[in-house]
Design a protein that fits this description.
Elements (H helix, E strand, L loop, with lengths): L4 H9 L4 H13 L4 H7 L14 H14 L12 H16 L4 H4 L12 H30 L1
Length: 148
């Protein structure tokens, strides 16, 4: 699923932030809704509580990987390479954007009330695409391992 720019814009104008948008789009792809999860994701907005620290697109992407392949019940195992997947995302993110922190990526303050810039939409879109690429790659690796 390529990020739908109109859907992302629609969610942003409804007041959702980067981390929330990534999870909403990921849930859409799974045919699910989870308002409680989306509420929880607000804590990651603007670099964890709008602190400008670790970008919500990155943390949202890590959460989306977890949503897809993580352990959710006592009987689930989760993907054995989930941490590698998240580290791949983090390394790509830092290489691509020059930082993992909002302050290091954006040219302005994330003070309460500021609108998210277009740059954030581009980062969310690219991060969502990278998450999907990672999930597909590790899914193929898992399938190859299962056949051995």
């Amino acid at each position: 699923m390529a990020a739908d720019a109109f859907r992302m814009f629609q969610l942003a104008t409804q007041g959702f932030c980067c981390s929330q948008i990534i999870l909403i789009l990921g849930l859409d792809e799974l045919g699910k809704e989870n308002p409680d999860l989306i509420k929880a994701m607000q804590g990651l907005c603007g670099g964890i509580g709008r602190s400008g620290k670790t970008c919500g697109a990155l943390t949202g992407g890590a959460c989306l990987i977890g949503l897809n392949v993580g352990k959710g019940t006592p009987s689930e195992l989760g993907h054995p390479k989930i941490n590698l997947m998240i580290n791949d995302l983090m390394e790509w993110f830092e290489y691509t954007h020059g930082s993992i922190d909002c302050e290091g990526i954006l040219d302005h303050s994330l003070d309460e009330g500021n609108e998210y810039p277009v740059q954030c939409g581009n980062i969310v879109s690219a991060t969502l695409s990278k998450v999907q690429e990672i999930l597909a790659t590790y899914s193929e690796d898992s399938e190859l391992t299962d056949e051995d």
